[in-house]
Amino acid sequence: MRPDPLHDALAVLLVTGRAAFVSHHTAARLHRAVVPHSADLHASIGHDRHRSRTSGVTVHSSTRIPVTFRGVKVTGPVDTFLDLVPHLDLVDLVVLGDSLVKRDRTTTEALVEAAASLGAGRRKALRAASLVRAKVDSPMETRLRLLVVLAGLPEPEVNIVIRDEDGAWLRRIDMGYRAPKLALEYDGRQHADSRDQYASDVRRREDLSNWRWREWTCVSDDIFKNPADALRRLVAVMVERGMHVPHKLSDAWRAHFPGHG
Q: Is pLDDT above 90 for 191?
C-alpha cells in the first residue's frame, strides 16, 4: 500500500528535479482517480531535457503542459488519461475515466474530444472514453457494467433514482433498466462484513420487491472468477423481465474478463 498520493508526488519531483512534473500512474493517484498499482513512481520531462535514472522511478519524455494541483506540477486529468492509454487495458482505462469524472476532475465529453484528437492509440482511447459514464460509485460497478456491455447486452443506466408517482425520492440503485424494473447491484465484501450494511441490503431488497422491481446481485467472484455464469444468470433474469436479448452473446467480453473458476 502506497502512502498518501501527495507524498509520492513530492517524492518523485524531489528525485527528478525542478523541470519535471508528475505524470502517468502517480498523476492519476494525485487526482484521486483509480489506477492499477505501479511499482514505480512516474514523472515526465521535456524532450530536450536529460532524463535521470533512479531505481523505483520512471521518467517519461513529454510535450505536455502541466497544471498545478495540490501545489504540485502534474499532468491535467485529461492528459493523464491519454498518457495511460498505452499502459492500461480497456477496462482499467474506463475505470480510470469513470473515477476522474466521479471526482469532478473532468467530463465524459472532454475525454471523448481529447481521445478523438490523439494520434497513436486513438482507437483504443476513443473506445475507452466513449464507455466512460458519470456518477459511477466504484471500480467494481464499472467492471460489471463493462461485462454487460461487452457481452452485447443492453447497457444499464447508472445510479438510478427510484421515485414514487409524485416524484418523491425512494431509493437509489447502482445501475439497471427502468422500463422492465430490473436493478443490477454490486455487493462488495463490506456487504457481508458490516451488520449495518447487511440490514440496509435486506431493506433494499424488500423495498424493491414492494415496488415491483427485480434485483440481480453481483459479487467479486462473478467478475473475476465466473463471468460466464454471471452473464448466464443475468440473461435469464432479463428474459424473465421481458427484455430483448441477443440470441448469441458477443465474445468481446472474454478478452477482458477471462475468469478462472
A: no
pLDDT in tens, 102-132: 999 999 999 999 999 998 899 999 999 999 9
The pLDDT value recorded for residue 1 is: 52
Buried/exposed code over 62-91 (b: 16+ C-beta within 10 A; e: otherwise): bebebeebeebbbbbbbbbbbbbbeebebb
pTM of the model: 0.91
Spatial neighbors of 30 by CB under 8 A, at least 6 apart, are: 5, 6, 8, 9, 22, 69, 70, 72, 74
Q: Which segments of the chain are extended strands (E)?
A: 21-22, 41-45, 57-61, 67-69, 72-74, 157-163, 169-177, 182-186, 214-218
- Segments of the chain assigned to CATH 3.40.960.10: 139-255
CATH code assigned to 139-255 = 3.40.960.10
